[in-house]
Specification:
Elements: E1 4-6, E2 18-23, H1 26-34, E3 43-47, E4 57-61, H2 63-66, H3 76-82, E5 101-104, H4 107-124, E6 127-132, E7 135-139, H5 149-164, E8 168-173, H6 176-184, E9 191-193, H7 199-203, H8 216-224, H9 230-234, H10 238-245, H11 247-256, E10 272-283, H12 286-306, E11 311-320, E12 324-336, H13 339-350, E13 358-366, E14 384-393
Parallel strand pairs: 1-9, 3-5, 8-9
Antiparallel strand pairs: 2-7, 2-8, 3-4, 6-7, 10-13, 11-12, 11-13, 12-14
Helix pairs in contact: 1-4, 4-5, 10-11, 12-13
């Protein structure tokens, strides 16, 4: 099995044996199922992107495309400068190795592939927590012990690859946070097992940003405090961390020490759907910001429709220098399923920031209803502009999955 790693273990048995399953470059993998000739080629999948266009943002990039500097959330126009489209190259260039393929997001297709993967996950574990379309935690305590968990995980990976045709990386650990880090540790096609008692040793040399709930902003602040690695965070004064970050400081301190008491539980209905996207550099090009918000609005509305959710509030998030988080929201008189309305409201709320320099934008729908499918008539709807937080400094970090593709997450 490629990418396999294992740390020496002990004989102790924890209450949980947790697997974290993370599909590698899932959107790209799905496109390669449909077009096998894309295998091994640089491939970019864009949200808000149409074939032959240069609008939208990168949702995920294959590992081959990342070698050209393509990153998740990058504007398609920027990606094209680094990696021109294969189909549009100069005839004299031909099929140059310095070109790649671009495909628009096809969420309905990806969802159908994800259902096949989820069927295997639910067959393999009694408790499954689906985190996103391409990521899940499994409690396999009643299915295997530590002496057989590596074979169990190998078989799980094999079933996914043979039966569905996509590749997963799997991390196994006694805690949820460590299992997720383990699945990241040897991508792609990785399998890493961290046995009980070894979590802190495993985390120690890693960059502090690898610790669960530590994103780029928090990592930067920790580095300013002289804390560079997970091991240094584990040795830090928890009171000092609490003074700086509040209770979350104690939480990341415990995670760095391998202490995580959470149990794998199925997710309840979400309270909101949102999507965020960061720009590589702070920009003041309002047309580019509008374009990104349009793409995010379309993606969020599509996700709500797939999940069978109506929504009553539409909001945006705009992060301006240095790290000021501005959120605006507008509530309707009843729940709806209307993608065009989501886009219109989001763009209208965005007009307040026409002259602002922007680091990151996001779109959210909330006040969800999963039972009321008779949509309220839009006639007479009155929008109320709720200024949720005018300029609220937060420790909010970008949310992406381990494969570099964007994932849904609540606003900070």
């Amino acid at each position: 099995m490629p990418g396999r790693g294992r740390l020496p273990g002990t004989d102790r048995r924890p209450e949980q044996v947790v697997c974290h399953v993370d599909m590698d470059c899932f959107y790209a993998a799905c496109e390669r199922l449909r077009e096998p000739e894309l295998r091994g080629e640089p491939l970019v999948v864009g949200m808000g992107y149409e074939a032959g266009d240069d609008a939208g943002a990168v949702a995920t990039a294959s590992y081959e495309a990342r070698e050209f500097g393509i990153e998740s959330a990058m504007a398609i126009s920027e990606a094209l400068e680094l990696l021109p489209r294969r189909e549009e190259t100069d005839p004299e260039i031909g099929d140059s190795e310095d070109t790649g393929y671009y495909r628009p997001v096809d969420m309905s297709y990806y969802e159908s592939i994800a259902e096949d993967v989820k069927a295997i996950l639910h067959d393999s574990a009694d408790v499954v927590r689906e985190v996103s379309i391409d990521e899940a935690y499994l409690d396999v305590t009643d299915r295997t012990g530590w002496d057989g968990v590596e074979e169990f995980a190998c078989d799980l990976k094999r079933r996914i690859e043979v039966d569905v045709g996509v590749v997963a990386s799997v991390g196994v650990a006694p805690t949820m946070s460590a299992a997720k880090i383990a699945s990241d540790a040897d991508k792609p096609d990785g399998l890493v097992v961290i046995e009980p008692g070894d979590v802190r040793e495993f985390l120690g040399p890693m960059d502090v940003e690898a610790v669960h709930n530590v994103g780029p902003v928090t990592a930067r602040e920790l580095q300013e405090m002289g804390i560079e690695t997970a091991g240094e965070l584990a040795e830090s004064d928890p009171d000092r961390l609490a003074d700086h970050f509040g209770e979350r400081g104690r939480e990341i301190y415990r995670f760095a020490r391998g202490e995580d008491t959470r149990s794998v539980t199925p997710r309840a209905d979400p309270k909101s759907f949102s999507r965020e996207s960061a720009f590589p550099d702070t920009i003041d090009d309002h047309d580019r910001v509008r374009e990104r918000v349009q793409a995010l609005a379309d993606t969020v509305a599509e996700r709500a429709a797939r999940e069978g959710a109506l929504y009553q509030t539409v909001g945006i998030k705009v992060v301006t220098p240095p790290y000021d988080v501005n959120t605006r929201a507008r509530s309707l008189s009843g729940p709806v399923d209307d993608p065009e309305l989501v886009e219109a409201i989001a763009l209208d709320l965005l007009t307040e920031f026409e002259t602002a320099r922007v680091r990151k934008v996001g779109v959210r729908v909330s006040k969800l209803s999963f039972t009321e499918r008779e949509q309220v008539s839009l006639d007479g709807f009155v929008g109320t502009d709720d200024r949720v937080q005018g300029s609220d400094r937060r420790h909010g970090d970008k949310s992406t999955d381990a494969s570099g593709q964007l994932t849904l997450s609540d606003f900070c």
